[in-house]
């Protein structure tokens, strides 16, 4: 027998590709709605930004203060508006123009002293000193603070103040154009080793546009030596120490670690006070007052080297000139990561549910049974999802840029596209991998949406805080980025920060030159590596699930956990059950198969040699023997029918033959190909009509047949002709039924379409599971005609519960009982072999029932009554004891003695044979 030539890879890929395009066309509005979702979210972001601009960015509090000067009295319109620092509040001053910034006093930031409960009534400003040389430390400590308070009213007022160490408790602002230490109501403190009663003055500074008047108070400065930096750290973070069970507040304003400083080496570490409440989440960074601390220790060291008369005078601090600015906060970029995490991850449920739907509806397996291999399925499906995802991302970028989202416009488009492209590949691979864990689309959809929204929320309210927190170890950030949702969020976070900073202060957005300086240099490799690992794992799990193997079989082999010791015991149990005498016809079939197995070639399309299927016992139950040593040969052009009660093993046998499950032992060949090793080639010449219709709801009957016809290597006019003939043969051609979606078909129409699919392309072997279920009598007879015509060059194995169908279609029948063939032969042989009796039915009045029994006993002494109710009786009469003419004569004679309402004599039916074999099997 010539083995079938498999359909080429490109032909099968082309068939699936065309089917997917058609399916996509049928679901065009679903795709439109999918693409519109990110557009809606982009519009939401634009609306949020517009609202923020109106309430915050364009607020008068976030721009330089102005005053209206109306030259026309009584005119409510502002004719002249003057803006400047003199019209500005504390917050507005930050945005004013400063072409000539004023010179300001350098101040030391000292802690707030509201909680001071010292016995002396005031708390000293503590300065801690440590180092390796305590004597040097003591010398420098004495030089840190000025011992006099020198102030006069000359033009060198600022310089005179600069000789003193001045401090303030006011928090700093975001710039130094208008230091709150000078403009707030809080006094300025002059820090001295010892205060006197005269150490309090007031002064005023009038330097346009700045005018202020301040009070200077003296506060004691306390220099303390500590043995090492650990003690300094402990005291700084503890904040106070207890002395005589009373709290003494040590308010540390500065601390110095002189390290190895000596006359030839000046090496110092400076701690400075900069504790602010509520500033961690602020978008702006406040400056710190560290310059005076540096000047203090520098002057102390100079005096140590050159004497007390030497000083490095710190006259003033001064900002750089600046133009007038406005607040430009891009809120859309700040909240963009969580929004766009949801937008991109929304593709995941779509892909996952599509894969699980094909698995749930068993569309994947039915495609495979008609010749679609794993390789074209993976290639076309992956390319299909990748094309949709890429279009989705491109539309998102184009629309986001078009409506003005700086998140897209300020960052390099090539970096964005490559990042999104890599991630959607990872997302598709994960969807393929995860789909093996789900069998229901509802469960898969719920789990996918939990993943989508959970990733966004965890990213915004956990992961982002850990990224911005300096105390969280960076290696754990890397570990968290291994979770795909966080790697996506991290990349989007980087885009948002670069866009936000450019909008705020004019910095460039993310460019390729910034790649290494951002987190992208670790996010990209993570995504690429996970992409390939997920793809490999998904392919492995798919192969395992399709072959019904244990996914962790390699671990069992590695640890030598095998079932080799259990197999002999299992086989022993099976063999003990199989010690039964087969029927003669079954033995003859087995001998025939053994003879055919020895021949180099055979005309038989299907050969099964001692095929067995044993399901292992669970929870202490014994193994389940589904098929017990089946031997069968089916010739090309023959229809073999399988009958049997539910649970007899028919489905297990069919599942082995179509590749759903592997046989436990034995062998089977289809067109000379082993079902255990060459199933992929078997599929190319096989047709299947499953018990339940496996159809795409949105594809038409014609489109179904075109797809499966292409899988059978039909092309061009041959394909169109085969589709037309198939539709006409099953009465799906007229009235536009062929071009109607299968989801709108009735049950009978779907059944007829399933039969047409199984027969298209003239497969060499066809398996049909109850093909005429649900059909009306006319449609059923027409379908039988189609099947009978198709079997001329095809081997058909058919399962049915209809004895009429079996007798009409099947050349031979086999009755399955308890996993074994109990009998085999054509319908007439079986009726002759198992139907050796007639059934006589007579209906009379109740009082004449005894007369009927006497009549039957006279005709056949071995007759057996099998039915009796209300005057109607049935008797089983052995054929060898009577002739039909004798029965007719006896009944006609009885009619003269008593009234017979009705009577009949029937031969044994196939249904009677089935019942008899099923009971005795």
TrEMBL record:
<keyword id="KW-0812">Transmembrane</keyword>
<dbReference type="InterPro" id="IPR026082">
    <property type="entry name" value="ABCA"/>
</dbReference>
<feature type="transmembrane region" description="Helical">
    <location>
        <begin position="444"/>
        <end position="467"/>
    </location>
</feature>
<dbReference type="Pfam" id="PF00005">
    <property type="entry name" value="ABC_tran"/>
</dbReference>
<dbReference type="InterPro" id="IPR003439">
    <property type="entry name" value="ABC_transporter-like_ATP-bd"/>
</dbReference>
<feature type="transmembrane region" description="Helical">
    <location>
        <begin position="523"/>
        <end position="541"/>
    </location>
</feature>
<comment type="similarity">
    <text>Belongs to the ABC transporter superfamily. ABCA family. CPR flippase (TC 3.A.1.211) subfamily.</text>
</comment>
<protein>
    <submittedName>
        <fullName>ABC transporter A family member 6</fullName>
    </submittedName>
</protein>
<dbReference type="GO" id="GO:0005524">
    <property type="term" value="F:ATP binding"/>
</dbReference>
<dbReference type="InterPro" id="IPR003593">
    <property type="entry name" value="AAA+_ATPase"/>
</dbReference>
<dbReference type="Pfam" id="PF12698">
    <property type="entry name" value="ABC2_membrane_3"/>
</dbReference>
<feature type="transmembrane region" description="Helical">
    <location>
        <begin position="417"/>
        <end position="438"/>
    </location>
</feature>
<dbReference type="GO" id="GO:0016020">
    <property type="term" value="C:membrane"/>
</dbReference>
<keyword id="KW-0067">ATP-binding</keyword>
<dbReference type="InterPro" id="IPR027417">
    <property type="entry name" value="P-loop_NTPase"/>
</dbReference>
<feature type="transmembrane region" description="Helical">
    <location>
        <begin position="334"/>
        <end position="357"/>
    </location>
</feature>
<feature type="transmembrane region" description="Helical">
    <location>
        <begin position="32"/>
        <end position="52"/>
    </location>
</feature>
<keyword id="KW-1133">Transmembrane helix</keyword>
<dbReference type="InterPro" id="IPR017871">
    <property type="entry name" value="ABC_transporter-like_CS"/>
</dbReference>
<keyword id="KW-0472">Membrane</keyword>
<keyword id="KW-0547">Nucleotide-binding</keyword>
<dbReference type="InterPro" id="IPR013525">
    <property type="entry name" value="ABC2_TM"/>
</dbReference>
<feature type="transmembrane region" description="Helical">
    <location>
        <begin position="377"/>
        <end position="405"/>
    </location>
</feature>
<feature type="domain" description="ABC transporter">
    <location>
        <begin position="606"/>
        <end position="843"/>
    </location>
</feature>
<dbReference type="Pfam" id="PF24526">
    <property type="entry name" value="ABCA12_C"/>
</dbReference>
